[in-house]
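Quick start: read one record
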Amino acid sequence: MEAMSRPVSSRQTGVHPELTRLLARRRACAYRKPIHPASAAAFASADQFYRECKQPVVLDAGCGTGASSYLLAEQHPDAIIIAVDKSAYRLARRQGKQHQRVMHVRADLIDFWRLAAASGWKLQHHYLLYPNPWPKPEHLARRWHGHPVLPWLLALGGTLELRCNWQVYAEEFAAALTLLLQRPISAIRLDDPGEPLSPFERKYTASGHILYCCQAQIRIGERTRWLQETNQLVPGNQPQP
């Protein structure tokens, strides 16, 4: 029997009071971290797959073992699934599984997001399934909504969906999107999530955790605005509106 999972424990009980100030600081400073060559090479293969398939694209960001990718392929039968994780160990646990509409990519997700946005990718759906919660209050900047890469997520467009088992993270993610998109975005409780989308979701459900979801449709005008903000931040790549 799989071990039961403990709920997230944190001194933080609500949206971080420094979130607004942190997002303002992120907007004021360009993110110039160099792209790792291995991530660039991995993205080049994924980009070729993206352009040759000519189908709607679903991005499984931080896919872990890749089990979620096959479930997403069932839920999105007309789309290709591109699943990214930086861990060779986790991806190796696919045990040779293959699917003609699923591509697994080993790359640094931060680099991958930036390259995809700079190359003009347009997503149908963008999943962030149970990311590391970084529950200590001083780790706000390590959460995806506090990280400098957030504008690139928005520039990819489509339906952005976060799922997690910590209410604070979901509400904080929604608060960050509300500030940046300048319209209300909410986090909801997933009382009936249906078929678990990932091993984490299955484990957390079996452990009796309450699950949360934050979903936002990035509109065309909003996507264009974020493309303009990220323009020229990745050397040698120009966004395609």
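The CA atoms of residues 81 and 102 lie 5 Å apart.
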